[in-house]
From TrEMBL:
PANTHER family: DEDICATOR OF CYTOKINESIS, DEDICATOR OF CYTOKINESIS PROTEIN 2. It comes from Leiothrix lutea (Red-billed leiothrix). Pfam families: TPR_DOCK. One of its GO terms (molecular function) is guanyl-nucleotide exchange factor activity. Residues 1-136 form the Dedicator of cytokinesis TPR repeats region domain. GO terms for biological process: cell migration; myoblast fusion; small GTPase-mediated signal transduction. Coiled coil: none annotated. This is DOCK2 protein. One of its GO terms (cellular component) is cytoplasm.
Length: 188
């Protein structure tokens, strides 16, 4: 097992699918259709490959926690529904791996909270992502009763944080200082 090789693979793949020139939702409708018809959405294809390779790591997955949390989060925040549905379960697998090793998943939790703040501040994330995140992780947790309550608490924490971060991002363009201050207090 070559850790550096796998690390390079994951980082390169995430860098590929998150590059600006592949963010189809930012293009005009005509350009979007032209690219979609000619090439399809390459982000989905690469995202599925990342997911498949993640699950092939076996016991070596623990080597990538918390280091790959940020890149995987960046990938799951791409506003493409099928990509999100396919890759959000990687988070549960990361939690499960750390839990099986240490009895908790604090490294994962701390890293995702730190990275989520950065990503939402950068303009990523939306209400739909929050709902998918909650439903997918809750569903995954139901299959593992030993970790279910911990995952539900984590999901509740992240959902609350994401709600506040999205509110904060929305009011930053607001002229009212009171609204911005109220939102800042809520976030803190």
């Amino acid at each position: 097992f070559n850790l550096q090789l796998w690390n390079n693979y994951f980082h390169l793949a995430v860098a590929f699918i998150t590059q600006d020139s592949l963010q189809l939702e930012n293009f005009s409708h005509a350009k979007y259709n032209k690219i979609q018809n000619k090439y399809g959405d390459m982000r989905r294809l690469i995202g599925f490959a990342i997911r498949d390779m993640w699950y092939k790591l076996g016991q070596n997955k623990i080597c990538f926690i918390p280091g790959m949390v940020g890149p995987i989060l960046e990938m799951t925040l791409i506003p493409e529904v099928e990509l999100r549905k396919a890759t959000i379960p990687i988070f549960f697998d990361m939690m499960l791996c750390e839990y099986q090793r240490t009895g908790e998943f604090k490294k994962f939790e701390n890293e995702i909270i730190l990275k989520l703040d950065h990503e939402v501040e950068g303009g990523r994330g939306d209400e739909h992502y929050m709902q998918l995140f909650e439903s997918i992780l809750t569903e995954c947790a139901k299959q593992h009763p030993g970790i279910c309550s911990l995952v539900e608490s984590f999901v509740s924490l992240v959902k609350g944080l994401l709600e506040r971060l999205l509110d904060y991002r929305a009011v930053m363009s607001d002229e009212s200082k009171d609204n911005r201050m109220s939102c800042t207090v809520n976030l803190l």
